[in-house]
Amino acid sequence: MNSLILAANAQDPTLQTFENDVWWIVLIKLLGVFVILLLLTLFTINYERKVVARMAVRPGPNQVGPKGWLQSLTDGVKLPFKEEIIPKTADKVVYFIAPVISATVAFTAFSVIPFGGVVSMFGHQTALQLTDVPVSVLVLLACSSMAVYGVVLAGWASGSTYPLLGGLRSSAQMISYEVAMGLSIVAVFMTAGTMSTSQIVAAQAHGNEVEILGWTATTPSWYAVLLFPSFVIYCIAAVGETNRAPFDLPEAESELVGGFHTEYSSFKFALFFLAEYINMITVSAFATTLFLGGWRAPWPITWIWPGASSGWFALIWFFAKVLLLLFGFIWLRATLPRMRYDQFMRFGWKVLIPVNLVWILFLSYVKVANNELSATAKWLSIGGLVLVVLIVAVSWPQARKPRQRSIEEQLAARPPGSFPVPPMDLQVPPSPRARRAVAERTPATVGAESETKEV
């Protein structure tokens, strides 16, 4: 068993591994990342169309290529050759730069994602990763934050109302869900002790042994199990960060026509389309790296086949996990309706961020208790903290909904001669037939009001 662990650790790249790469190896890996992202984007577009069609019990794309799998390729070739229309009121410079920003940062984020361990490439030992730095996770967060600037600038530079509203919504979305995503990753920093993506994958290779009340137990190796609340919050925040349903408020076709890209066409619209799907792939690869063991095969496979994660086989497990997370994006789009704007903001600020902060404080206490307290005192104190949190959560006062007023009360509260206004809770106002029925039951009041108007 120890020999297998040493062999697995020998495959883990370190920061010094990337310093020894020759320049043409770096260029090959750079071109490989670019080609993989383009091919994976074309596949994901068709993948989404076919999965949604399957859920809706309809054929989906089935005409172009074998079983319709070349449909997204023809769409990608067609878009740049369509007529480009630029509004007269647009800020030409920013209008052009906005889609470039979105596409550029989407490609840049993949530079620190590890695809596998150390392999032999044309006689040189190199890692299946373009580069790595001690703060790689912060590079990914910075790229995801910059992607929203492309959306905001596109909405402002279009010189139109609907794109502007989409850009404003996106700025609020960035503030709300970028904070939640960043806090969910803090738990990974605390557990792994590093911000390097390759070292975070190495930290999930094997579980750690902990002593619980005198007996030894092995913790799960994947942080998706060990840090399950952080994983759930990250997945929710990732959906909001990529503007996908049910959090696609910057677009919101039913309200804003097309949102921030309403005034875009031809190649510039293709860049936004490309950036959206690459961002989906990026956050899925990021979740795979931080929470799902990265490029390593899952436990039953490694137990049966010890060399499953070695060499180029690592690409199989990495992309299998990414496609599984992409299926989650598609499943949400085919299942859930779009959230209302106030529900969206309330969920981010009042649910995700407070739960994340409580979870981080709990993890901090556990790390301190492991070093300072005995086993019995540690677990008793942790159980007491969990009990206190549960009591507070159960006894927390719930917001009371206002009593639903009857039709008579709504008509009586309306000033004489005013027009009916839809209520703030988006309920349907009383119908004209119901108002006539109320008027027939209360003739004295209605007559008095009409006499007062005539005077």
TrEMBL record:
Its EC number is 7.1.1.-. It is a multi-pass membrane protein. Residues 412-455 are annotated as: Disordered. One of its GO terms (molecular function) is NADH dehydrogenase activity. It catalyses: a quinone + NADH + 5 H(+)(in) = a quinol + NAD(+) + 4 H(+)(out). It is an enzyme of class 7 (translocase). It comes from the Bacteria. One of its GO terms (cellular component) is plasma membrane. It is found in: Cell membrane; Membrane. Its main location: membrane. The chain crosses the membrane at residues 22-45, 93-115, 135-158, 179-202, 222-240, 269-292, 312-332, 344-365, 377-396. GO terms for biological process: aerobic respiration. Keywords: Cell membrane, Membrane, NAD, Quinone, Translocase, Transmembrane, Transmembrane helix, Ubiquinone. Belongs to the complex I subunit 1 family. NDH-1 is composed of 14 different subunits. Subunits NuoA, H, J, K, L, M, N constitute the membrane sector of the complex. NDH-1 shuttles electrons from NADH, via FMN and iron-sulfur (Fe-S) centers, to quinones in the respiratory chain. The immediate electron acceptor for the enzyme in this species is believed to be ubiquinone. Couples the redox reaction to proton translocation (for every two electrons transferred, four hydrogen ions are translocated across the cytoplasmic membrane), and thus conserves the redox energy in a proton gradient. This subunit may bind ubiquinone. This is NADH-quinone oxidoreductase subunit H. It comes from Paractinoplanes rishiriensis.
